[in-house]
Design a protein that fits this description.
Elements: H1 5-10, H2 23-32, H3 47-50, E1 65-66, E2 68-69, E3 78-79, H4 81-84, H5 102-110, E4 120-121, H6 136-140, H7 148-159, H8 166-175, H9 183-203, H10 236-248, H11 254-257, H12 260-297, H13 303-316, H14 336-359, H15 374-388, H16 405-415, H17 423-426, E5 434-436, E6 441-443, H18 449-458, E7 464-466, H19 467-477, H20 483-492, E8 507-509
Helix pairs in contact: 2-7, 7-10, 8-10, 10-12, 10-19, 12-13, 12-14, 12-15, 12-16, 13-15, 14-16
């Protein structure tokens, strides 16, 4: 394995690529996470690999599944919508009016808003069976797209999960239980499973030993040692895993309290926010680590402060973003130049440190790092590295135009609302954290983003939290805000009816 302990053990985040449809995050998690039975375990071949053997029309790539093509769609992509329409429903529906195909109604209800410029439509995976209609490879039209499932699992592990696969298995463990609500919800779940079996069988027509579509369930990860960062309170990794665990805990009853599509939207909101800030946090960490190594090597007067900045960043977090008052013009709160520079400099710092460690390895055995001692151990390592391994470390970080281009696009488009040529569809994305126009990018939560954050912070439906807890929660992400801005956002979202004079004890109530 290439790379040092820094990128293989401490921060093993894979390099990302952005897929315009946010549904791609859950789609890839269900298909390729080690925590999903679709990907199998060490003893079995994953179902995604079976697609390579699928019998599809000549010219199509069987791994590039898309729900529906639009004008100009790739000839390699295989549309599954027409296959799904042929799902036999005799065992589920007794009588069907002439001229009506119930599957078309079901499928149309699952279609997600179209992202501008995309050549296909995505489906919202309200159950795992929906991913039989699409793969990440089809949604981005590439042979080998970045593994988003692994990126998600790494973020969870850095935040406290048991290991790779725990994010997917936690969600699947909840979803495999009886669908909540009335008979209509159960009928929908059964219909989608019948659809998935039909699509899968059609793809495998003529293939010897083609396996049946499974009842998708969790594969629990092998519990290993906790990652040293997992105990750090103010990181986006900890923020994501805490929220995800809350949402997926059956005892909290969120699945019963939320409609199926809203539950899926909440999970996508956590994935979007957690991933975006994970890569911002990573960039700031490498930038600070690089500076500390350079200052220590030069034995400058700033060396102690630079090392302290690294340890403080892990212990106390940092300000990566802020939400400004709505009446401040976008031109005065444009945050993208600073975020873009951070991602570019962080990428260059990461590469510079990797190059220096390749010339002169200076390892830190993370297995010996006890809970809460990572900042101190890093400070010691910086001192050792600066005297033994940092001689070849590049001093100046001079990004080029294409530096971290994929990461910049990944972060930017996860944060802003999905753009569409259909104004009505465009309004369906309420879970963004930032907005942009042709010139500016600024943080301004969508109408549902704060609902998700505050409700999960409250713990359970009809629960409550306080403004002080929300301030700390946002600080875990790296968002630092004036109290008055948060109070106004809470009042506009209808999450607080308490007196603003309550200060940080102001009560915030769950939206459900």
């Amino acid at each position: 394995m290439t790379g040092s302990w820094l990128v293989n053990q401490l921060l093993p985040l894979p390099r990302p690529e952005y897929a315009k449809q946010t549904e791609a995050l859950l789609t890839d998690l269900f298909w390729r996470s080690r925590g999903s039975s679709l990907n199998g375990d060490n003893a079995t071949e994953g179902y995604f690999d079976d697609l390579a053997r699928a019998q599809v029309p000549a010219g199509h790539d069987p791994r590039r599944l898309v729900a529906r093509k639009t004008h100009g769609g790739s000839p390699k992509a295989l549309e599954t919508y027409s296959i799904a329409l042929g799902t036999p429903l005799a065992g589920l529906i007794d009588r069907v009016p002439p001229g009506l195909n119930p599957m078309s109604v079901v499928l149309d209800s699952l279609l997600a808003p179209r992202a501008r410029g995309d050549k296909s439509l995505a489906c919202v995976p309200i159950t795992p069976d929906v991913v039989s209609l699409q793969t990440l490879h089809g949604m981005v039209n590439k042979d080998s797209p970045a593994n988003q499932a692994r990126a998600i699992e790494v973020v969870g592990w850095l935040g406290g999960s048991s290991g790779e696969g725990h994010v997917a298995s936690t969600l699947l463990n909840l979803l495999r239980t009886e669908p909540p609500g009335d008979a209509l919800n159960r009928l929908m779940a059964n219909t989608l499973q019948a659809m998935a079996r039909h699509v899968w069988d059609e793809l495998g027509t003529g293939v010897e030993h083609w396996r049946a579509w499974p009842a998708i369930g969790p594969i629990l990860p092998v519990v290993g040692p906790a990652h040293p960062l997992a105990t750090a309170r103010f990181t986006p990794f900890r923020w994501f895993w805490t929220k995800w665990s809350n949402l997926c805990d059956p005892a909290n009853n969120w699945r019963n309290a939320l409609p199926a599509r809203r539950f899926t939207d909440w999970s996508l909101c956590l994935l979007r926010t957690g991933l975006a800030f994970a890569y911002l946090w990573e960039a700031e960490f490498f930038r600070l680590l690089h500076r500390a190594a350079i200052e220590s090597r030069q034995n400058s007067s700033e060396a102690a402060a630079a090392v302290s900045a690294v340890t403080s960043f892990i212990q106390d977090g940092a300000r990566l973003a802020s939400i400004e008052p709505v009446n401040v013009p976008p031109s005065e709160k444009n945050a993208w130049p600073a975020l873009e520079a951070l991602l570019m400099q962080g990428n260059k710092a990461r590469q510079a440190l990797e190059d220096a460690l390749a010339d002169q390895p200076q390892d830190l055995d993370l297995s010996t790092v006890q809970a809460g001692t990572l900042p101190a151990r890093l400070a010691t390592w910086i001192g050792e590295f600066s005297t033994q391994g940092a001689a070849a470390l590049e001093v100046r970080l001079e990004p080029e135009a294409n530096t971290a281009k994929n990461t910049r696009e990944f972060v930017r488009y996860l944060l802003i609302p999905r753009t569409s040529d259909d104004d009505t569809a465009d309004q369906a994305d309420f879970y963004y954290l930032a907005r942009s126009n042709q010139r500016n990018f600024w943080f301004e939560p969508g109408p549902e983003w704060l609902v998700v954050v505050c409700s999960l912070l409250a713990g359970r439906p009809r629960g409550h939290c306080t403004l002080g807890e929300l301030v700390d929660d946002l600080a875990s992400l790296g968002i630092r805000n004036e109290r008055s801005v948060l109070v106004r956002l809470l009042e506009e979202a209808g999450l607080s009816t308490d007196s603003p004079d309550a200060d940080n004890a102001l009560v915030i109530r769950s939206a459900f």
